Amino acid sequence: QLQAYGGGLVQAGGSLRLSCAASGRTFSSYYMGWFRQAPGKEREFVAAISRRSGNTYYADSVKGRFTISRDNAKNTVYLQMNSLKPEDTAVYYCAAQFSGLYYSTPDKYDNWGQGTQVTVSS
Predict the structure, then answer these.
(1) DSSP bridge partners of 18
(2) What is the spatial distance between Cα 47 and Cα 94, in angstroms, rounded to a whole number?
(3) Contact 97/103 with Cβ under 8 angstroms?
(4) pLDDT digit string (tens) for 45-85?
(5) What distance in Å separates the CA atoms of residue 48 and residue 25, rounded to the nearest whole number?
(6) What is the DSSP string of 38-67?
(7) CB within 8 A of 38, min separation 6: which ones?
(8) What is the tens place of the pLDDT at every residue in 100-114?
(9) In the chain, which ranges are E strands?
(10) Which pLDDT band, with edges at 50, 70 and 90, does 99 fall under?
């Protein structure tokens, strides 16, 4: 079970920190990812992090502005979003990838949270 939270309304240039809490004892064995979906658009990759945080991956559109991190002791993955733009407006989802490999496509992820809305006003 994944529970994402921390979304909200923010002005352009502002920051938000999303969190995703996982239940279960095997969180540290999963690759974790963040995706987003804007109205009328397909779900797109935002960021991913390896099991022990050694590797992180970002979509070009968020590179340098967003940071993914995780705390395996707290079974939580984070997405720090800075310098937000109106085009970042979307529902953000966290997802777990059980194979332990990096993927950027939604169909490779095995378990999804319910999503949290991020709205950036201009």
Answers:
(1) 79
(2) 10
(3) yes
(4) 999 999 987 899 999 999 999 999 999 999 999 999 999 99
(5) 20
(6) -TTS--EEEEEE-TTSS-EEE-TTTTTTEE
(7) 89, 90, 91
(8) 888 999 999 999 999
(9) 2-5, 8-11, 16-22, 31-37, 44-49, 56-58, 66-71, 76-81, 90-97, 111-112, 116-121
(10) confident
